[in-house]
């Protein structure tokens, strides 16, 4: 309280009543401010809890998505590995056939050369 705002009192009882009234008004203002602050904090807490639930839900969704993508990647890796193995087998067989055909062509050419020499 400012000393300029304090009126002159005719008795101590009047001064005590004034001070008591002022204190009650301040208490009521404080309580009202506290209730408003509490309501604001409760609202913020509710928003924070909702945000937390939303983030936890999004986190679970993303974990599931990562798990699904990981599983697909592993399946694709296994499939690619099988395809590569088959292609390597095919390549080995093709090379073997190619070598056999080259050998056969050389034998035919040799036989042809032998026939040509025999005709002369």
Descriptive notes:
The termini are far apart. The protein has one helix at 12-119. The protein has 120 residues and is mainly α.
Break the fold down into its secondary structure elements and pairings.
Blueprint: H1 12-119
Report the sheet with the most strands, covering strand number, pairing sense and barrel closure. none
Give the mean pLDDT. 94
So what's the overall shape? rod-shaped
Instruction: Give the number of DSSP strands.
Output: 0
The DSSP helix count reads 1
- Indicate the percent of residues in helices: over 70%
- Radius of gyration (CA) equals 48 Å
- Which stretches are low in confidence, meaning pLDDT under 50 for 5 or more residues running? none
Structural class, please?
mainly alpha
Strand % is under 5%
Q: What is the first-to-last residue Cα distance?
A: 139 Å
Secondary-structure element pattern, one letter each = H
